[in-house]
Automatic annotation (TrEMBL):
One Gene Ontology term of the molecular function aspect: hydrolase activity
Origin organism lineage: Bacteria, Pseudomonadati, Thermodesulfobacteriota, Desulfobaccia, Desulfobaccales
Pfam family, one: Metallophos
InterPro entries membership: Calcineurin-like_PHP, DNA_Repair-Maintenance_Comp, Metallo-depent_PP-like
Transmembrane spans: none
Name of the molecule in the record: Metallophosphoesterase
Segments forming domain Calcineurin-like phosphoesterase: 17-197
Amino acid sequence: MVDTPLQLPTVGPFEGILFIGDPHVAASPPGYRLDDYSQSILAKLDFCLQTAREHQLLPIILGDLFHVPRNNPNYLLVALMDLFRPVIPWVLVGNHDKHEARLTPDVSLMVLHAARVIRLLAAAGPVATVVAGGRRVLVGASPDWTPIPRTVERGGHDYVIWVTHHDLTFPDYTAGRVHLRPIPGVDLVVNGHLHTPKPPVQRGETLWCNPGSISRVALSSQTPNKLPVAAIWRPGQTELETLPIPHRPFHEVFPAFVDRESPSPDDLDESRFIKGLENLMMRKTSEGLGLQTFLTANLQSGDPIDALIWELYEEVMREENQE
């Protein structure tokens, strides 16, 4: 059981809580993004924080504030400081925020923490009593690779909310490592880490929610239909309220996606294909998104031009392997 400390800090008053999923702030476009990604994600964060101010909501970022943990450029850190300083969002530690699975002093998240523009949620356990809508809400946290409690002592609070950054199992995602279960004493668990929104699942007295990432960082069959959203909780709500976030259409920020099961000759936009190649060559391949993956996802079998591109790729790879 997790006991509630007698001397928890109290913050507020607020009208509710705004949950912001996995921003993945980065200077270089992750995945196959073709736009000015850093400005795009900063604009999404700005929208969320403005909403929090206007509606008196406590903003909590559910992990993976950064896409890479270190060496983010100074202009990006300064931009985040300017965004965060008026509201001081709470930031849960995610796996992308850590270097070699550890929260070391040289990661970008610690720079923001040292600048006192965020409240860092780096340890598992109760965090604070949040006064929201006149109710006392115990907020606890389980950052990446920390335990989710089996039971929590409510300590006289009206609500208990726990934020997590874990690989949870949902009905449409059975590969997760952590199964959903009742947590006596906890009313609501809000999870980051999983980028695709999941339907809420009730387990005993505990409602498990996964609002998804506010950013689209990967190109897959699900990406065209994924809409960036945040989530709002207010006392008395039985489910989270979805907050749509302004964003550009899929075709403006990603190259054309070709479904390999049903390819169409019109699916491949040549100009975006070339731009995607240029974008790929400008980035390091540390994300595991290499040229072979890009070509496999976009070239069409039976197209003579695509066949030439693939032959050229194989020839280049043979030459590199011989060196």
